[in-house]
DNA sequence: GCCCAGGGGGCTC
DNA sequence: GAGCCCCATGGG
């Protein structure tokens, strides 16, 4: 199993090349992006991040202090903007109240303590928490998402409705805990999902995994 | 006009 | 624990 997973990783890496995730200028910007990208394409997030930078409030203090309606306006491109404005404020207030706005004090925690604390903040679920842990805190947790489920279901590893935790356990139980590899693997899965393993009409003939995919047997 | 994109929470049973 | 609904932009 380990060899199979590493083989798939190698295939994707050779095809797509390094993905350079997470595109952000700071650890805090990763967190903001992780919340804003919930159920929306990254393009929409970039617009919002630029707005926050222009406004000069892409800081913990800045978001904690800005008017909630104003914040919602600035991130309007990211869908569910009212809820996301609340989420950003909740996270920043948590950092302000417990860590004096120093995100690294939070990130210094042991990985699973950090995960539990992130999950306790309303608006941060498993995928968002794990993205923060891997891409901002740089600890070796495997991020799972809808693409992961779809691709590995079609490859024959998961059921169509496989739950998050069992998918994460599967990867973490069969791969060495390597931050750089986990970083690339998740990003490569997203690239594969976007370009080939799409939900409606998968482009199987061009897919770098088609010859080992159960879904493509015609 | 439709569908879906780098989800999460809340509610019911 | 599963099954539903809500949130509410932008690109193809």
Features:
218 residues, Endonuclease Iii, domain 2, Endonuclease III, domain 1, 60% helix, globular, DNA-binding, DNA repair, catalytic activity, acting on DNA, metal ion binding, hydrolase activity, acting on glycosyl bonds
Polypeptide structure, described:
60% of the residues lie in helices and 0% in strands. It folds into two domains: 2-20 and 142-212, Helix-hairpin-Helix base-excision DNA repair enzymes (C-terminal) (Endonuclease Iii, domain 2, Orthogonal Bundle); 27-135, Hypothetical protein, domain 2 (Endonuclease III, domain 1, Orthogonal Bundle), CATH 1.10.340.30. Helix 1 packs across helix 12 (179-195), helix 2 packs across helix 3 and helix 8 (111-119) packs across helix 9 (126-135). The chain has 218 residues and is mainly alpha-helical. The protein has helices at 2-16, 27-36, 42-54, 60-65, 68-74, 81-99, 103-107, 111-119, 126-135, 146-154, 164-174, 179-195. The structure holds a DNA duplex (13 and 12 nucleotides).
Number of E strands: 0
Low-confidence stretches: none
The tally of domains stands at: 2
- CATH names the topology of the largest domain as Endonuclease III, domain 1
- Broad structural category: mainly alpha
Mean pLDDT: 96
| Major β-sheet profile | none
Q: Alpha-carbon distance between the termini?
A: 26 Å
- Identify the overall geometry: globular
Strand/helix succession: HHHHHHHHHHHH
CATH arch. level architecture of the largest domain = Orthogonal Bundle
Question: Care to give the gist of this entry?
Answer:
Helix content is 60%, strand content 0%. With 218 residues, the chain is mostly helical.
């Amino acid at each position: 199993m380990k060899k199979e997973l590493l083989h798939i990783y190698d295939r994707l890496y050779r095809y797509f090349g390094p993905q350079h995730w997470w595109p952000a200028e700071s650890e805090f910007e990763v967190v903001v992006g992780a919340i804003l990208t919930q159920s929306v394409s990254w393009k929409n997030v970039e617009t919002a991040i630029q707005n926050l930078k222009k406004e000069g409030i892409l800081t913990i203090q800045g978001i904690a202090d800005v008017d909630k309606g104003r914040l919602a306006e600035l991130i309007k491109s990211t869908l569910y903007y009212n809820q996301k404005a609340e989420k950003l404020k909740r996270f920043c207030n948590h950092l302000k109240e417990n860590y004096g706005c120093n995100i690294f004090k939070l990130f210094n925690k042991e990985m699973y303590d950090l995960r539990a604390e992130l999950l306790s903040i309303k608006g941060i679920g498993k995928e968002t928490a794990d993205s923060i842990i891997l891409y901002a805190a740089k600890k070796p947790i495997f991020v799972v998402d809808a693409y992961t489920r779809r691709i590995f279901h079609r490859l024959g590893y998961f059921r169509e409705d496989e739950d998050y935790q069992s998918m994460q356990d599967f990867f973490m139980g069969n791969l060495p805990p390597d931050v750089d590899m986990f970083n690339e693997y998740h990003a490569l899965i997203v690239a594969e999902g976007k370009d080939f393993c799409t939900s409606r009409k998968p482009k199987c003939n061009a897919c770098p995994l088609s010859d080992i995919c159960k879904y493509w047997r015609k």
